[in-house]
Amino acid sequence: MQAANRLQKALKKGGATFGAWQMLPGTNHARTIARCGMDWICVDTEHGNIDDGAMHEAVAAIAGCGVSPVVRIAANEGWMVKRALDAGAHGIIVPLLYTAADAELLVRSAKFPPLGGRGFGSPFPMEKFSNQTTGEYLQQANDALVTIVQIETKEALHNVAAIAAVPGVDVLLIGPFDLGNNIGHPILDGTMHPDLKAAIATIHKAATDAGKRSGIYCTSGEQAR
Question: What CATH code would you report for 6-216?
C-alpha cells in the first residue's frame, strides 16, 4: 500500500509535493486533473459541489490514473472519515481543528485497532492501491494512509505545537484565507499581512519540530515558491 500511495512516497522523499483541488463532480473532471502531473488530487467535500456518491467515483477515477486521491471532509466527524477512507482515499484533509484533543479524536477515527476505532468492512478501498487483498489492507492501512489537519483558526494556531505532536497526524496544512480571517488580517487583495506571514512561519516550525510535514493552499506559482 505504501508503494502505491504517491502522496506518502512524496512526503517521505522530502522536498515539495504538489496537488490540485477538485470542487466539481464528475469522473472526467477527476481524470483530467489527475493527468496534469500532480502527486495528489484533493476531492473537496467541504466547500466543493461533491456529494458522497460523487466522492466515491472521483476517488476511483484519480487512483486509476496512478495519482493519490485525498478527500477533504466537511468536518471532524468520525462517519465522514470512515466514508472517505472506505471509498479508498489515500489520505484525508480535515478542516477546522482547534485543539490536540480534536486531533486525537481524528486519529482514532482514521486508524484501525489497536491505534483507533475505525470499523472494517468496506469492499472498495483495496483496488485503489494495487489490488491489495482484504487482509493486506487491514494490516497496512494504519501506516499507509495520510492524515492531514488544517491549521486555520486562532485556537489551532495557539495550540499548533501540541496538535503537531499528536501521533498519527502526518501533515499540517495551512488554510491562509481562514487563518487570516481568524487572526484579524484577512487576505483581501492577495497581500498577506506580516502577522499572517509570522503565523504561517510558526506553523511550519511546529511541524518541523515534531518531525511532521507542512503545506499551504496556494493560488499562484509565485505564492507556491
Answer: 3.20.20.60
Distance between CA atoms of residues 215 and 225, nearest Å? 12
The yes-or-no answer on residue 204 being catalytic is no
Considering the candidates 29, 47, 56, 158, report the single residue annotated as catalytic: 47
Sheet holding 146-151, edge to edge: 19-22, 40-44, 68-72, 91-94, 146-151, 171-174, 213-216
Give the separation between CA 43 and CA 62, rounded to whole angstroms: 9
Residue ranges of E strands in 182-222: 213-216
Q: pTM, whole model, 2 decimals?
A: 0.95
159 by DSSP, 3-state: which? coil
Segment 49-105, tens digit of pLDDT: 999 999 999 999 999 999 999 999 999 999 999 999 999 999 999 999 999 999 999
